[in-house]
Amino acid sequence: MTFIAPSRFFSFLLAGLMACLIAAPPARAAFETRAGAAYVLDLTTDSTLLVKNADTPLPPASMSKLMTLNMLFEALRDGRVRLDTRFSVSSRAKAMGGSTMFLTEADRPTVEDLIKGIIVQSGNDACVAVAEGLAGTEDAFSRLMNERAAALGMTNSTFANASGWPDPNHRMSMKDLATLASRLITEFPEYYDYFALKEFGYDGRAPQNRFNRNPLLSLDIGADGLKTGHTQEAGYGLVGSAIQGNRRIVFVLTGLSSPTERAEEAERIVNWAFRQFARKTVALKGTQLAEAKVWMGASRRVGLTVAEDVEILVPALLRGEIAAEAVFQTPLRAPIKAGDELGALVFDLPGIAEKSVPLIAAKDVPRGGVIPHLRTAAEALLGRAAMAVQGL
């Protein structure tokens, strides 16, 4: 990676930005999806590949069951319940329509049963049983869901129930759903395998309803989760994830017209995400990538580097150099310690959201003695004199 030296600095007396620019690659068309809203994330490199109406709060249907599962996984992690803990089934839970586990008030399903029933059978009754088992009532559970979503940074989500049952106050954005899916993958690996289950039937009931609705699980393309959704208002949607080689993607689609269109669009997105992008190492740990002026230091400049090798996702057909910019305040004030974060290395790639990596000091720069102080004072006087002359 070759940086071109900047042509000039901003005034030494004013905080400014220094940029090191590399030739930009040619523009490239983004993926065109039939979904009404979509979001695709390369989880391995934290690179956003596709955004379409991704911050718009929309009816999530059963995809919001992922939040109910998150609450249950957190309870498992905290030791408030175990996989073999049994929950009761209320008449309210039994009366739930739509997709169910076919629970009755006489049942005492385990937490593990309910996890499988929610994931595979999309059980609305199972969601109510979990909500009542953890919070007493579904309304109380919904309030906890809202509080937790806010704490997790899901700013475009509001929950009115545990199942995704149609409600004007029940909304999620596609980006929030991707955030939630990423959390389930990274924070709860011990439970994530449940999302790849292809079938489950509680106590042998309704054998025709025992199959996972995720259309990608049987395609041998690395898909291993997460959750489908459908209501008349929302259309057909899917929160999915797939892993191929050393990369994992997370994607969210909604607003599709049929299960067939959902399956086709999901497979198209998985193939596109893996085949049109590749990982590249673009900066090595310890390599000086830029240099900044230092104010009142024993050295007049400090090199900027990265703490670890930088690996980013780039379009597979990209040839030549990669656009990047080193952004930091100048001058920097001494003392500076090696490893201090002083700025950012920002990459601008076609078809991928801007990505930044911290720039750190390559060495210590202690405060200067008498000579650096005199030199700094002289430079300041010269700077003011030059500006005074320009003002005449």
TrEMBL record:
Q: Which InterPro entries match?
A: Beta-lactam/transpept-like (IPR012338), Peniciliin-bd_prot_C_sf (IPR015956), Peptidase_S11 (IPR018044), Peptidase_S11_C (IPR012907), Peptidase_S11_C_sf (IPR037167), Peptidase_S11_N (IPR001967)
The residue ranges of the Peptidase S11 D-Ala-D-Ala carboxypeptidase A C-terminal domain are 277-367
Q: Which residues are responsible for catalysis?
A: S62, K65, S122
* Pathways involved: Cell wall biogenesis; peptidoglycan biosynthesis
The record ties this protein, via Gene3D superfamilies, to:
D-Ala-D-Ala carboxypeptidase, C-terminal domain (2.60.410.10), DD-peptidase/beta-lactamase superfamily (3.40.710.10)
Quickly give the catalysed reaction. Preferential cleavage: (Ac)2-L-Lys-D-Ala-|-D-Ala. Also transpeptidation of peptidyl-alanyl moieties that are N-acyl substituents of D-alanine
Recite the UniProt keywords alphabetically. Answer: Carboxypeptidase, Cell shape, Cell wall biogenesis/degradation, Hydrolase, Peptidoglycan synthesis, Protease, Signal
The residues forming the signal peptide are 1-29
> Where is substrate bound in this sequence?
K227
Query: Domain of life of the organism in this record?
Result: Bacteria
The biological process GO terms on file are: cell wall organization; peptidoglycan biosynthetic process; proteolysis; regulation of cell shape
Sample GO molecular function, one term: serine-type D-Ala-D-Ala carboxypeptidase activity
Q: Does the keyword field hold Zinc-finger? A: no
Per the UniProt record, which EC number(s) apply here? 3.4.16.4
SUPFAM superfamilies given in the database record: beta-lactamase/transpeptidase-like, Penicillin-binding protein associated domain
Q: Which family does it belong to?
A: Belongs to the peptidase S11 family.
Protein function: Removes C-terminal D-alanyl residues from sugar-peptide cell wall precursors.
Record's protein name: serine-type D-Ala-D-Ala carboxypeptidase
